């Protein structure tokens, strides 16, 4: 059973309170909490794109397979060089082979699968990611389920996401991560008018010991879908004040501004800034593609000149 301190660390990581890890003091190296806390802190630093800090945190000569995997992920995320990225992916493939056949009860070996699947997904290798994570099998790794569900939702297969979730309920305890997975599926599918997702995010945001801009963004998106635009904008603006520069928060705020009572000029300013700051975001790419299709279709039609009235 996890100690109270480790449980709190796990809770913060699960709910995206990554900034809490930046100044987190690690337990004494002799403590059983030392390695799992270090692993959570390194992963949180990667999520914040402090990849070099994550690499520096991991002992260079560690034989721990989970630490090796997280170092490889940090190198992948922290560079744009194709050679370095491919080398990181190859290292993760080797680690997956090394633990092949190992039981899921080993948390560190299970974490290798989660980290590898995450890297492969980021690299666009969807099938390899799902295979590494054990999609559709009888594995018992709830973190892997969370990533599998995220992948299925991202490729517009909520049916497969729900199957994976239902399978996990046969063995997983009703813990925080299981509730988060269910809320993610509800956010995409709109089940019960987003009531469960909204309730879950609101409950966690009310926790005075937790500060997570990701939860605020999730509830903001839920409120947009529930047509609660002013409340959504409030959540998203608070999320931005806690973590400026987050692309998903900015994207949701652009949508809220376009749907709400915001002045047109203000909404256009937000969109212009978003395009400048996040030119490769899927929302920007999608709008550009649709604008191109519209221009292409419009070119097929010739608009007749306006009729001019003549004196009788």
Short description:
The protein is an all-alpha fold and 312 residues long.
* Poorly predicted residue ranges: none
Q: Figure out the total of helices.
A: 16
Task: Give the class from helix and strand content and strand pairing.
Answer: mainly alpha
> Could you give the count of β-strands?
0
Computed Rg: 23 Å
Q: In angstroms, what separates the terminal alpha carbons?
A: 94 Å
The helix content is 55-70%
Question: Which shape, going by the Cα principal axes?
Answer: globular
Query: Averaged pLDDT, please?
Result: 92
What is the CATH fold-level name of the domain at 193-297? Serine Threonine Protein Phosphatase 5, Tetratricopeptide repeat
Give structural notes.
By secondary structure, the protein is mostly helical. It has a domain at about 195-295: Tetratricopeptide repeat domain (Serine Threonine Protein Phosphatase 5, Tetratricopeptide repeat, Alpha Horseshoe), CATH 1.25.40. The chain is about 65% helix and about 0% strand. The chain contains 16 helices and no strands.
List descriptors.
single chain; 312 residues; mainly alpha; 16 helices; 0% strand
Strand and helix map with partners:
Elements: H1 4-14, H2 34-47, H3 51-57, H4 65-77, H5 82-98, H6 107-122, H7 126-133, H8 142-154, H9 158-168, H10 176-189, H11 195-205, H12 213-225, H13 229-242, H14 247-259, H15 264-277, H16 282-298
Helix pairs in contact: 1-2, 2-3, 2-4, 3-4, 4-5, 4-6, 5-6, 6-7, 6-8, 7-8, 8-9, 8-10, 9-10, 10-11, 11-12, 12-13, 12-14, 13-14, 14-15
GO molecular function: structural molecule activity
Family: Belongs to the COPE family.
Main location: membrane
